[in-house]
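Before the break, one more example. Copy the sequence into your notebook; we will annotate it together after we see the structure.
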Amino acid sequence: MNAPTDWYKDFFHGVTLDLWRDCVPPEQTRVEVEFLIEELIIQPGARILDVPCGNGRHSLELARRGFHTTGIDISKDFIDEASKAAEAIPDAETEWKLGDMRDIKGEGVYDGAFCQGNSFGYLDAEGMDAFLAAVARSLKPAARFIVETGAAAESLLPKLPGREWYEVGDIIMALENRYLAEESCLETEYTFIRDGKKEKRQSLHWVYTAGEIRRMLQRASFKILSMYGSAERNSFEAGSQELIVV
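Here is what the structure looks like once it is written out:
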């Protein structure tokens, strides 16, 4: 491996944040939040944990709908952005914490929690076990937890390109992917180009099968209720674009 295992500590700042903001349209966030509300079975006033929260797009939308949200993320830029955005929401009940996704304080605090995006896999198996145990401790009895990822092995590996590129706004992002089969880990080198300037970054993503994710959750004392292949609630199968575990 060329990328450091803690690559995520220095990855999310500057151009990567600018690109991420432009990647996700507001309508997608609204659809995802409606799915979360329905599957977490929560009502306004409930305390919800968003980890890692990025720039808080889900938590902010939940706050607009009357939920009390706590977002945890390792990116100071994202936490600062989320905190500032929350100031524009009347009567918003939000809390933003800068820290590692495993660093979740409190026991029996939250009425629901979720981990959206591809952050499930930023850590190796030991790290993911620690993360899930921390989430489990933080939840009230019978509270639900949702994991969403497009990087489960059944989704990622059948169509993984060696090279790919995207253009988002004024940013071009080129990726070189190398799957390390002996480690079940995807190593990616990113090249960002904007205004003629190039910037390179690297990441590692541990790739877990749906069965491994199920067993990780069960080790943390979660009961698996559903495994979907999309927010439309179709069954997860090889080739599904994403995996959503309730």
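DSSP finds eight helices and eleven strands in the chain. The chain has a mean pLDDT of 94. Try to locate both features in your own notes.
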